[in-house]
Amino acid sequence: MTLSKKFIGLVILLVFLIFAGISLGSVLDFSNDNILKLRIPRTITAVICGAGIAIAGLLMQTLFRNPLAGPSVLGISSGSTLGVAIGIFALEALGIGMFYEKFTISVLAILGASAVTLLLLFVSKFVKHSNTLLIVGLMVGYFVSSIVSIFSFYGDKTNLQSFVYWGMGSFNKESEMDSLYFYYVPILLILFLVFFLQKPLNILLTGEKYAVSMGLNTSRMRWITITCTGILVGIITALCGPIAFLGIAVPHLARNFIKKSDHKWVIPFALLIGGSLGLICDIISRLPGLEGTLPLNAVTSFIGAPIVVWIIFKNKMV
Amino acid sequence: MNSDTSILSCKNLSIGYSNKTLVADINLEAKQGELIALMGLNGTGKTTLFKTIFKEIPLVSGDILIDNRQISELDLQQLISIVYTDRVSIFGFTVRDMVAMGRMPHTNLFGKLTKADKELIESNINSLGLENIADMEINSLSDGQFQKVMIARALAQETPIIMLDEPTAFLDIKNKKMIDSLLHELTTKHNKTIIVSTHNLEFSKAFCSKVWLIENGKMTEKSPDSLSEANFL
C-alpha cells in the first residue's frame, strides 16, 4: 500500500471515529441537544490532544534519539501535575472560590510544565549529550512527584479526592467552547509550527555529531524542541490530566505503519494516529452499557503499555 | 592529482580544553587533492583537532584558515564533511535516504530535494558501487557497507574537504582495504582533500601523501616512509 493510500485510509478512519465519538455513548438520545453539546467538544478535545501528545512524544524521541523518551519521562507531565496539586491543595487555604479554581488550576499546570521545561533548558546549557539530559529529566520527574506526594499526604480529604479524579484523566473536563479555544489555539499553533521543523528533525536523527557537521545549530534546536513539548504537554495536561503512554506509543505506531522515520511523513501520520487513538480511548471509556465513564488513563495505559513492551522487545532492550 | 593550492591551514594553532593545551604551535597546511593521515597515540589530540576545526570547541590560540579565511567567518557545512567511526541506527532509513542527508545543508526550509540533488545522490551511490543496496535499510548493512554509505553521504555534501575519524576502526581486513583504496580514489578522481585520523601505518605508507604526527604535545608533518612502528610505541 502506498503512503498516500495509507494517509487517505487514516483520514477516513479519523472521520469515521469522529462520527462514532459524537454518536456513541451511554446515552443514545440524539435528539437531546445537551448530549451533542457535550460530545462535540469532547470529541474535538480527544482528537486535538491525542494528536498533540503524540507530537510531543515524537519530538522527544527524535531529540533524545531514544525510543522510550516521552513527555512523562522528561518530568514535564510531573511539572504540570505539581502545578495542579498546588492549585487543588492551596486554593482552599488561600480562600479562593470555585469560580476561579478551574482557570487557576489550568494556569498552574502550564506554569508547572513550563518551569520544568525552563529548568531542563537551563541544565541543557551545561549538558553536552541528550541522553544525560534525559536522565536529568527523569530525576526532575521523581523529585517533583515526591513534592506532589507530600502535598497529597497533608492535603484535605476532599481536595485529595478531586486531585485523584483529575489524575485519572478525561477529555471531558471542559465543555464550554469559549473556554476550549484558550487551550486549542496554542496547541494548534505548535502543531502547525512542527511542520517547519521536519528538516532539522531529520538531521537530528543522524545524531548530534553528524547534525553539527551538517550545519544544524543543535543547541537552538534543543531549545525549540523542548519549548514546543513544554507548551503542548502543559496545556494538554491542564485540560485533560496527565495522559499516559500515548506520547511514547503513537510515534512508534506511525513509524511502523509507514516503515519510515522521515519526519515529512512521520509528522502527519503521528497527528492522524494520535488523534484517532485519543478518540478510540475516549470512545472505549464511555461505551454504551458502562455506568459512568472509565478513567482515561486506565484506557490509554491498557492500550499503550503493551505497545511500549513491544517496543522494548523489538529494539532488543532486554 | 595534487595542486599547490592550500585549502586548509593552521597557523600557530594551539588546541585543548579549558586551559589545558593538548597540542601547541601547530603550523601545517593541506592542499587540494591530498590524502593526509592524522596519527598519534590515543588521547594525544586527534579528535580534539577535528572538534576544533569544526568549531565544536574553541581553539586555545592561533588561526585555522580555509581558503585563507578564518573558520569563524565560514559556514563549515559547505566546506567540510565528516565521517565518524560509530554507526548510526535509524529505523526505516534506506541507503538512499542516508546519502540524501548529505544534501541537507543545500536544501530549502523543508529539506526538499531538487532534480539536481537527486541526480547527484544517484551519481554518488553509483560511484561508490552502492546501487544494488540503495533501497536496503541502513540498519541491515555490514559495517563496511555502512562506512561506504557514510562516505557517499559526505561526498553528496559536496565539500572540498572530508575528514574521517578512525573510519576503519571496527572493520575486518577486507573491508579496511576496501575503504582505504576508496579514500585514495576520492583524492585522485574527485580531487577531494581528505584527512583521516588513523592508527594504520600500512595505509599511510601505501596511500597518503603526508602524515600529521602528534607526539609530545607537538604536531609535525612527516613523510609516511620516514615513520616506523617505533614512533607509536
Summarize the structure in words.
The complex is a heterodimer of chains A (318) and B (233). In chain A, helix 2 (33-64) runs antiparallel to helix 10 (218-240), helix 2 crosses helix 12 and helix 7 packs antiparallel against helix 10. With 318 residues, chain A is an all-alpha fold. Chain A has 13 helices and no strands. With 233 residues, chain B is an alpha/beta fold. Chain B has helices spanning 46-53, 95-101, 115-127, 143-156, 173-189, 201-207, and strands at 6-17, 20-31, 35-40, 61-66, 69-70, 80-83, 161-165, 193-197, 210-215, 218-222. In chain B, the strands form two sheets. Chain B has a six-stranded mixed sheet, sandwiched between helices. In chain B, strands 2-1-4-5 form a four-stranded antiparallel sheet, with helices on one face. Classes of the chains: A mainly alpha (318), B alpha/beta (233). The interface between A and B is medium-sized, with 21 and 26 residues.
Order of helices and strands of chain B: EEEHEEEHHHEHEHEE
Largest sheet of chain A: none
Strand pairing plus helix content of chain B: what structural class?
alpha/beta
Number of strands of chain A: 0
The CATH homologous superfamily of chain A is named ABC transporter involved in vitamin B12 uptake, BtuC
Helix content of chain A: over 70%
Strand content of chain B: 25-35%
- Report how far apart the termini of chain A are: 32 Å
Number of helices of chain A: 13
Shape of chain A: globular
The separation of the N and C termini of chain B measures 33 Å
Average pLDDT of chain B works out at: 90
Per CATH, the class of chain A reads Mainly Alpha
Helical amount of chain B: 25-40%
